[in-house]
Amino acid sequence: MAAMGIAVASWKASPQGLSTRxxxxxxxxxxxxxDPIGDAEVRDQAFEVQPYQDIVRTSVVRVADRFLLEMDxxxxxxxxxxxxxxxxxxxxxxxxxxxxxxxxxxxxSAGDHIHGAExxxxxxxxxxxxxxxxxxxxxxxxGGQAIIKPVDFEINGSEVVAFVDVAEIGDPPTxxxxxxxxxxxxxxGTDAFFQPDAAPDVGxxxxxxxxx
Length: 212
Ligand SMILES: [Ca+2]
Prior knowledge:
Strand 10 and strand 11 form a beta hairpin. It contains one helix and twelve strands, in the order αββββββββββββ. The N terminus is likely disordered. Helices cover about 5% and strands about 40% of the residues. By secondary structure, the chain is mostly beta strands. The structure holds calcium ion. The site of calcium ion has 9 residues, from strand 2. Calcium ion binds next to strand 2.
């Protein structure tokens, strides 16, 4: 299998991983899902959603000890996106469901009961600069605080990419991913946000995508 032209070079050689791959495709597969162009919208019809908040595709692939997450948008992200009046932050996120637990709280509000992801990557624009963080929400399950760490990211035109060490999200054998774009009116940790788009719109994109 190893000599058959693997598209992605060096995967972690764990016994479980080798066993899975030897019975699946020899090519490291990128799990991806397309999303309609033009479906990004918010409740406030007076609010103009920008095409760079409209997701057209998202993908996840594991390369060695990192997950590589991509989001393609309907238009390039400007180097300095204009924040409309009242807007404090824009984000492009990847949320990770790695188990059945449902942490509650940051970066959503303390009373939030919708967002159960154990980990999330937030690529943020605050009006002055872009930054990217991995938010480990698992301490919330036991009354602790979310842990925030910087992660590598790239914005190449209409493509947003983030890199996450697998160990930082518990090296899960399988993970469900959802990409979103959001508009925050005060700050993280609140209910004051719109979510113009998500991919998938319902459910999760699962990695690995062709397990045997
Ligand atoms: Ca879309």
